[in-house]
Amino acid sequence: MTNMEFNTVASTFQNLISKLQQFWSAEGCVIMQPLDMEVGAGTFHPATFLRSIGPETWFSAYVQPCRRPTDGRYGENPNRLQQYYQFQVVMKPSPDDFQELFLKSLDIIGIDSKIHDIRFVEDNWESPTLGASGLGWEVWLNGMEITQFTYFQQSGGLDCFPVTGEITYGLERLAMYIQGVESVYDLVWTEGALGPITYGDVFKQNEFEMSKYNFLHANVEFLTLHFNECESKSIQLISENLPLAAYEKVVQASHLFNLLDARKAISVTERQRYILRVRSLARAVAQGYLKSRADLGFPLADPKFNTKTLRRLTGTS
Amino acid sequence: MYDDLLIEIGVEELPPKNLGKLSLAFSMGLETAFKENNIDFCSVEAFATPRRLAVIVKSLAPKAPDREITIWGPPKHVAFDDTSSPTQAAKAFAKRNNLKINNLNELIQNDGNQDKLCLRELRTGTSILDLLGNCINQILLELPLEKRMRWGYVREGFVRPVRWAVVLYGDKPLNLKIFDIKSNNITRGHRFLSPERIVISSVTNYEDELFNAFVVAKIARRRQIIKDGADKLASEIGGKAVLSNQLLDEVSGLNEWPIPLIGSFDEEYLKIPHEILISVMQQHQKYFHVIGPDGHLMPYFITVSNLISKDPRQVSEGNERVIKSRLADAKFFYKNDLNQTLHGWREKLSSIIFQSEVGSLLQKTERVASLCKALAIYTGANPLLAHRAGQLSKSDLMSDVVREFDELQGVMGYYYALNDQEDPLIAQALSAYYLPKFSGDKIPSCPIAITLAIADRLDTLVAIFGVGLHPTGSKDPFALRRASLGLIRIIIEGEIDLDLQKSIDLTANELNFSGKTISRANKELVLTYILDRLNFYYKEKGFKPESYKSVLALKISNLHDIDLRIKAIEDFRHKSESIQLITANKRVNNILNKSIPHGNYINVTHFVSDKEELLFHAVQKIKPEIDEKIKLRSYSDALETLLSLYLPLDDFFENVMVNADDESVRNNRLALMTEIQELFLKVADISQMAT
């Protein structure tokens, strides 16, 4: 595939990220940095999960490294990674031209909608551990899923109002498309002083080692203990009215669960129970967070609503 | 002035699978609203694309006709007192109808009997402007949606966010509030081929103007374009596109401007089971697959893009890349699976819960295997092979391929059984026992598959009823309804001579061994539940309720036997003599219903009339014949034989009083009637065959 026409746009992996950041920054998004914790998806970042709760407005965009231990392939599969990058955009309330903005962003990074077949294909999203769900699409580029596009309906078991719109770009897939490479490891990360630095240069060894760790060396007993510890700590922190701190424990518990899953240490029945345990933590955090924002008077809410209305709307009076 | 009306609701991409249904419900909703409000129109035409639901109503009246209404009040003498002043009753009438009291005496009319207060008023008919303002939102809110969503600050919600609306009446845009937007005459064309806003100039031009903006507004038209395009592309490579209706519907719901394109994949993938390839293409990528003249899969796929691409090659190549990586994954999974065995996977089933109170899937396979062995004598299957098939029936759920493509359960069991060198009959059964998968699907035909299909369904039914989780209302999480209907079809259409009651007992025994006691009451419930489904089964087949109800009333539990009887009755009902039997039966029943208790013993010495004796001998003569025919299940013959009682019975009733004064004579006659009634009940409860 010839990609001459793309050479001026998003020709490297880091260039792709900066173009998306610039674009969404110009749309009024708070550009956040990644959450410094292990998560399975950008949705776990407080800038999405917590901010989707309650009546306040919030526009934000950020890169989030995601870890999916079971997807590790020791660096041998050109399409699967145990750690990869998402670019996450959240807009609350979801704007009327949300889809158009997204399509414009594709244009900016060099995907020509007059050449490529871009489609919104129904795909409803659910995160059982977060008690979150939404309706929307996966976006197809010539039949390949490049983005998840979702209108949040529930978060931490609470109905979302106003609704958060979420865009999750799969950065590696997009970059592979734009750069026309068959293996993720061949992606040009940047043009370095001594020539191109590839994704493989940056991460291949990491994939190998982390796959070994995830599948073979992660200590099941310790992970189980740690999971239990996170659970009880989170419950305690909620009772101390510290939902943000409690949420960190939820995030940790969720990742520990993923690791246990990768070690095949959880039977199918137990699996469901683990999910429910994390979900009930997430629910408690959501309620605690809503209350703490209510106590602050929902400072980021649209001024057209007064505090009383907001409290009534959110049931926090 | 009658005029055409256009309503278009512009939305973000709708779910494709039910687009047709949604569109129909929307146009029906409007049609109903006009009819209910008495607003005249000529016809309704529906349009739907991923981004719009639209309806054109031809020759719609601007409003409902005005109506004169008449409201009668109290009689004059009640309404006015002696001084001709209005009474309380008159005042109440005035108040109710917004009338001035001092004009009431002008409203007196005669209703044919007496003078009364009477109000005649011309009511102006509802205008469509008033109606549409309310009813469009109402209809949208009432559409049958699986999931409704909210967006932005919109609370009521719809299937996807509503972004624009066009309402034109007689080419004039109407301003109505629909969700949080106002309607006008501005629509949008194809997202990429015609990104500008478009003004619809008139209702008549709607379809053409959208077409010029690269939107084919009608589902049926897009479907045709896709069908023709796919056929053409396939024939160019000497093949035939496989166009299932379901996929055609779905793909038609994914495009506004469909352009079918062909792509290929490496032939080496044809070495893995074709079902996997078809799953990847159909379920995951919404591609049509292509078969050659020999009926075998070809290494091509047809995708339907939504674009006249400036470089279609890039679209095809992109799709080829996707399918290549998906097929590589599938091949990887398949190769891995071939290194395992169904027997080996079976152990892992202990960690999968079938139902928490009943136990694991491993336990289920143990029960099903034993049950298969027990049922084999009825199905003619080899009991050892049937047992083995039962043991392996869930193993493929543990394979990588089925975990990735769950629709391939069973199919993969077949391939892995062959790979494990299991008996080919077992392999076949592992796939076929899932049949029928939907209404109208095939049923399994080989005895081992039939055995396994029956055992698996019975086990599910009895186990779930056993722990008290039987379906209530529309809730049926274990799909017991479908399991029952499947069971009914497999047994009846497979002509399996198997008593349901007895097989439920056998199933319950297996559960009992594993520590679950199934109560008698729950066993009864399962039996009744399955037998109740027969009503639906025969209704679907177009049988008369009188036919199957008459047989079901006998409470037999052998489905095959039930079926033979129902068919005999259904045939018999078409014969003119059937009426004789029904009448005869009715007369006998009438007598017996009114009678007091009496013995069943017939004493020939108590016969008074020769008609009695003749009838008695006729009965004695046919009794053994009937019994023999019932034994042979020649139910039509049995019914014919019963007919021979008609004349002697008729003679009997003409000449003999059953309720004779002499008690012994009377009881003897009643005993004879009872014997006849029992004979009549041998095939079916004929009294249910109402005339």
Q: State the order of secondary-structure elements of chain A, H for helix, E for strand.
A: HEEEHEEEEEEHEEHHHHH
CATH architecture descriptor text of the largest domain in chain B: Orthogonal Bundle
Weakly predicted, low-confidence segments of chain B: none
Strand order of the largest sheet of chain B: 2-3-1-9-10
What is the gyration radius of chain B calculated from CA atoms?
36 Å
Mean pLDDT across the residues of chain A is 92
Shape of chain B: flat
The major beta sheet of chain A can be summarized as: 9 strands, mixed
Structure at a glance:
Chain A is 41% helix and 22% strand. Chain A has helices spanning 13-26, 98-108, 171-179, 199-217, 220-239, 243-262, 268-295, 307-314, and strands spanning 30-31, 58-67, 83-92, 118-122, 125-127, 132-141, 144-155, 158-159, 165-170, 188-192, 195-198.
Structure description:
The complex is a heterodimer of chains A (317) and B (691). By secondary structure, chain A is of the alpha+beta class. Chain A contains eight helices and eleven strands. Chain A has helices at residues 13-26, 98-108, 171-179, 199-217, 220-239, 243-262, 268-295, 307-314, and strands at residues 30-31, 58-67, 83-92, 118-122, 125-127, 132-141, 144-155, 158-159, 165-170, 188-192, 195-198. In chain A, the strands form two sheets. In chain A, strands 1, 2, 3, 4, 5, 6, 7, 8 and 9 form a nine-stranded mixed β-sheet that branches. In chain A, α6 runs antiparallel to α7. The radius of gyration of chain A is 20 Å and the shape is globular. Chain B is an alpha+beta fold. Chain B has five domains: 3-63 and 127-212; 69-122, no CATH class; 219-337, no CATH class; 344-542, Orthogonal Bundle (Hypothetical protein af1432), CATH 1.10.3210; 570-690, Isoleucyl-tRNA Synthetase, Domain 1. Chain B contains 26 helices and 20 strands. In chain B, the strands form seven sheets. In chain B, strands 2-3-1-9-10 form a five-stranded antiparallel β-sheet, with helices on one face. In chain B, a hairpin with a 2-residue loop joins β7 and β8 (154-158). The two termini of chain B are 54 Å apart. Chains A and B meet through β4, β6 and β7 of A and β7 and α9 of B.
